[in-house]
Amino acid sequence: MKLVLASNNAGKLAELQALFAPLGVELVRQADLGIPEAPEPHCTFVENALAKARHAAKVSGLPALADDAGLCVEAFGGLPGVDTAYYATRFGYAKSDDNNVRALLEQLAGVTDRRAALVSTLVALRSAEDPEPLIATGRAPGLITQAPVGDGGFGFDPVMFLPQFGKTFAELSTEDKNANSHRGKAAQQMLALMRERWFAASPAQP
Protein backbone atom coordinates (compact mmCIF):
# COMPACT_ATOMS: atom_id res chain seq x y z
CA MET A 1 0.00 0.00 0.00
CA LYS A 2 1.33 3.42 -0.96
CA LEU A 3 0.67 6.43 1.26
CA VAL A 4 1.65 10.00 0.58
CA LEU A 5 3.45 11.55 3.55
CA ALA A 6 2.31 15.13 4.02
CA SER A 7 5.81 16.31 4.92
CA ASN A 8 9.01 17.24 3.13
CA ASN A 9 11.21 16.44 6.13
CA ALA A 10 13.71 13.74 5.12
CA GLY A 11 14.40 12.79 8.74
CA LYS A 12 10.71 12.34 9.43
CA LEU A 13 10.32 10.21 6.28
CA ALA A 14 13.19 7.91 7.27
CA GLU A 15 11.83 7.42 10.80
CA LEU A 16 8.27 6.74 9.70
CA GLN A 17 9.26 4.49 6.79
CA ALA A 18 11.17 2.24 9.19
CA LEU A 19 8.29 2.20 11.65
CA PHE A 20 5.65 1.36 9.04
CA ALA A 21 7.71 -1.27 7.21
CA PRO A 22 6.00 -4.18 9.07
CA LEU A 23 2.70 -3.32 7.37
CA GLY A 24 4.22 -3.26 3.91
CA VAL A 25 3.33 0.42 3.64
CA GLU A 26 5.42 2.56 1.30
CA LEU A 27 5.61 6.24 2.18
CA VAL A 28 6.17 8.80 -0.57
CA ARG A 29 6.99 12.40 0.30
CA GLN A 30 4.48 14.88 -1.07
CA ALA A 31 7.35 16.90 -2.55
CA ASP A 32 8.25 13.92 -4.75
CA LEU A 33 4.72 14.09 -6.16
CA GLY A 34 4.87 17.84 -6.74
CA ILE A 35 2.45 18.60 -3.91
CA PRO A 36 3.00 21.93 -2.14
CA GLU A 37 2.81 22.19 1.63
CA ALA A 38 -0.61 22.88 3.11
CA PRO A 39 -1.37 25.89 5.30
CA GLU A 40 -1.16 25.14 9.03
CA PRO A 41 -3.29 27.86 10.62
CA HIS A 42 -4.49 25.91 13.65
CA CYS A 43 -3.27 26.02 17.24
CA THR A 44 -3.42 22.28 17.95
CA PHE A 45 -1.37 19.41 16.53
CA VAL A 46 -4.40 17.32 15.57
CA GLU A 47 -6.07 20.10 13.56
CA ASN A 48 -2.91 20.84 11.61
CA ALA A 49 -2.17 17.16 10.95
CA LEU A 50 -5.70 16.62 9.69
CA ALA A 51 -5.49 19.66 7.39
CA LYS A 52 -2.17 18.44 5.96
CA ALA A 53 -3.44 14.89 5.42
CA ARG A 54 -6.62 16.05 3.65
CA HIS A 55 -4.61 18.36 1.39
CA ALA A 56 -2.11 15.64 0.40
CA ALA A 57 -4.86 13.06 -0.18
CA LYS A 58 -6.92 15.46 -2.28
CA VAL A 59 -4.05 16.47 -4.56
CA SER A 60 -2.51 13.00 -4.91
CA GLY A 61 -5.61 10.85 -4.94
CA LEU A 62 -3.76 8.49 -2.55
CA PRO A 63 -4.29 7.62 1.09
CA ALA A 64 -2.32 10.07 3.19
CA LEU A 65 -0.40 10.20 6.44
CA ALA A 66 0.43 13.46 8.17
CA ASP A 67 2.40 14.22 11.29
CA ASP A 68 2.30 17.42 13.27
CA ALA A 69 4.82 17.53 16.05
CA GLY A 70 6.51 19.98 18.29
CA LEU A 71 8.11 20.81 21.58
CA CYS A 72 5.96 21.82 24.54
CA VAL A 73 8.00 23.55 27.26
CA GLU A 74 6.48 23.77 30.73
CA ALA A 75 8.16 27.08 31.57
CA PHE A 76 6.60 28.59 28.42
CA GLY A 77 3.08 27.35 29.13
CA GLY A 78 3.36 24.58 26.55
CA LEU A 79 4.83 26.71 23.78
CA PRO A 80 6.26 26.70 21.13
CA GLY A 81 3.91 23.81 20.33
CA VAL A 82 2.63 23.93 16.75
CA ASP A 83 5.04 26.79 15.96
CA THR A 84 8.11 24.73 16.88
CA ALA A 85 9.52 24.55 13.33
CA TYR A 86 9.63 28.36 13.14
CA TYR A 87 10.68 28.97 16.73
CA ALA A 88 14.07 30.50 15.86
CA THR A 89 12.49 33.07 13.53
CA ARG A 90 10.79 34.71 16.51
CA PHE A 91 14.22 35.75 17.75
CA GLY A 92 15.78 36.94 14.52
CA TYR A 93 17.35 33.68 13.38
CA ALA A 94 16.82 31.88 10.09
CA LYS A 95 14.62 28.78 10.17
CA SER A 96 16.76 25.71 10.97
CA ASP A 97 17.08 22.95 13.55
CA ASP A 98 20.36 24.34 14.86
CA ASN A 99 18.91 27.82 15.27
CA ASN A 100 15.84 26.43 17.01
CA VAL A 101 18.09 24.74 19.55
CA ARG A 102 20.15 27.91 19.98
CA ALA A 103 17.07 30.06 20.53
CA LEU A 104 15.57 27.59 22.99
CA LEU A 105 18.70 27.44 25.12
CA GLU A 106 18.97 31.24 25.10
CA GLN A 107 15.38 31.63 26.22
CA LEU A 108 15.83 29.05 28.98
CA ALA A 109 19.02 30.63 30.31
CA GLY A 110 18.62 30.97 34.07
CA VAL A 111 15.35 29.02 34.09
CA THR A 112 15.36 26.16 36.60
CA ASP A 113 12.23 24.37 35.35
CA ARG A 114 13.61 22.44 32.37
CA ARG A 115 10.63 20.11 31.91
CA ALA A 116 9.41 19.67 28.35
CA ALA A 117 7.77 17.09 26.11
CA LEU A 118 8.09 16.28 22.46
CA VAL A 119 4.59 15.61 21.11
CA SER A 120 3.56 13.97 17.84
CA THR A 121 0.10 13.55 16.36
CA LEU A 122 -0.33 11.29 13.34
CA VAL A 123 -3.43 11.36 11.14
CA ALA A 124 -4.13 8.84 8.38
CA LEU A 125 -6.88 9.11 5.75
CA ARG A 126 -8.07 6.65 3.13
CA SER A 127 -9.15 9.61 0.99
CA ALA A 128 -9.57 13.36 1.32
CA GLU A 129 -13.24 12.81 2.23
CA ASP A 130 -12.60 10.04 4.77
CA PRO A 131 -15.11 10.70 7.60
CA GLU A 132 -13.18 8.49 10.04
CA PRO A 133 -9.56 9.57 10.17
CA LEU A 134 -7.17 7.48 12.21
CA ILE A 135 -5.57 9.61 14.92
CA ALA A 136 -2.64 8.62 17.14
CA THR A 137 -0.68 10.73 19.61
CA GLY A 138 2.69 10.11 21.23
CA ARG A 139 4.39 12.07 24.00
CA ALA A 140 7.99 11.87 25.17
CA PRO A 141 8.61 13.87 28.35
CA GLY A 142 12.08 14.88 29.43
CA LEU A 143 14.33 17.73 30.46
CA ILE A 144 16.04 20.38 28.34
CA THR A 145 19.81 20.21 28.75
CA GLN A 146 22.09 23.20 29.20
CA ALA A 147 23.89 22.42 25.92
CA PRO A 148 23.50 19.99 22.99
CA VAL A 149 24.70 16.42 23.63
CA GLY A 150 25.01 13.69 21.00
CA ASP A 151 25.28 13.53 17.22
CA GLY A 152 22.22 11.53 16.19
CA GLY A 153 18.65 12.43 15.33
CA PHE A 154 17.44 15.85 14.30
CA GLY A 155 15.40 18.76 15.64
CA PHE A 156 15.61 19.09 19.41
CA ASP A 157 17.05 15.59 19.91
CA PRO A 158 20.46 16.89 21.16
CA VAL A 159 18.87 18.89 24.01
CA MET A 160 16.04 16.52 25.00
CA PHE A 161 17.34 14.52 27.98
CA LEU A 162 15.50 11.32 28.95
CA PRO A 163 15.99 10.51 32.66
CA GLN A 164 15.10 6.82 32.16
CA PHE A 165 18.08 6.42 29.79
CA GLY A 166 20.39 9.06 31.25
CA LYS A 167 20.90 10.26 27.66
CA THR A 168 19.50 12.68 25.12
CA PHE A 169 17.57 11.43 22.11
CA ALA A 170 20.63 12.28 20.01
CA GLU A 171 22.66 9.71 21.98
CA LEU A 172 20.22 6.82 21.57
CA SER A 173 20.44 4.08 18.97
CA THR A 174 17.90 4.22 16.17
CA GLU A 175 16.07 1.26 17.70
CA ASP A 176 15.82 2.83 21.16
CA LYS A 177 14.80 6.19 19.75
CA ASN A 178 12.06 4.73 17.54
CA ALA A 179 10.69 2.75 20.48
CA ASN A 180 10.60 5.69 22.89
CA SER A 181 10.26 8.89 20.86
CA HIS A 182 7.03 10.84 20.55
CA ARG A 183 6.87 9.90 16.86
CA GLY A 184 7.70 6.27 17.62
CA LYS A 185 4.93 6.02 20.20
CA ALA A 186 2.42 7.66 17.85
CA ALA A 187 3.51 5.37 15.01
CA GLN A 188 3.02 2.25 17.13
CA GLN A 189 -0.50 3.41 17.96
CA MET A 190 -1.13 4.15 14.28
CA LEU A 191 0.14 0.73 13.23
CA ALA A 192 -2.34 -0.90 15.60
CA LEU A 193 -5.17 1.28 14.29
CA MET A 194 -4.32 0.53 10.65
CA ARG A 195 -4.16 -3.20 11.34
CA GLU A 196 -7.55 -3.06 13.06
CA ARG A 197 -9.38 -0.66 10.71
CA TRP A 198 -7.69 -0.90 7.31
CA PHE A 199 -6.01 -4.31 7.07
CA ALA A 200 -8.15 -6.63 9.19
CA ALA A 201 -9.65 -9.57 7.35
CA SER A 202 -13.40 -9.41 6.83
CA PRO A 203 -15.31 -11.62 9.28
CA ALA A 204 -16.92 -14.71 7.85
CA GLN A 205 -20.60 -14.43 7.02
CA PRO A 206 -22.88 -16.46 9.32
Automatic annotation (TrEMBL):
Q: Which UniProt keywords apply?
A: Hydrolase, Magnesium, Metal-binding, Nucleotide metabolism, Nucleotide-binding
Residues noted as binding substrate in the record, renumbered to the chain: S7, N8, N9, A10, G11, K12, A69, F154, G155, F156, D157, K177, H182, R183
Give the co-factor note.
Binds 1 Mg(2+) ion per subunit.
The UniProt record lists the EC number as: 3.6.1.66
GO MF term (any one): dITP diphosphatase activity
Residues annotated as binding Mg(2+) are D68
The record ties this protein, via Gene3D superfamilies, to: 3.90.950.10
Any idea which residues are catalytic in this one? D68 (proton acceptor)
What Pfam families does this protein's entry cite?
Ham1p_like
Q: Which reaction does it catalyse?
A: ITP + H2O = IMP + diphosphate + H(+); dITP + H2O = dIMP + diphosphate + H(+); XTP + H2O = XMP + diphosphate + H(+)
Cofactor(s) the protein requires to work:
Mg(2+)
GO biological-process terms attached to the record: nucleotide metabolic process; purine nucleoside triphosphate catabolic process
User: One GO CC term of this entry?
Assistant: cytosol
Which family is annotated? Belongs to the HAM1 NTPase family.
Give the quaternary structure: Homodimer.
Task: Give the function comment from the record.
Answer: Pyrophosphatase that catalyzes the hydrolysis of nucleoside triphosphates to their monophosphate derivatives, with a high preference for the non-canonical purine nucleotides XTP (xanthosine triphosphate), dITP (deoxyinosine triphosphate) and ITP. Seems to function as a house-cleaning enzyme that removes non-canonical purine nucleotides from the nucleotide pool, thus preventing their incorporation into DNA/RNA and avoiding chromosomal lesions.
The protein's name in its UniProt record: dITP/XTP pyrophosphatase
What organism is this sequence from? Answer: Hydrogenophaga crassostreae
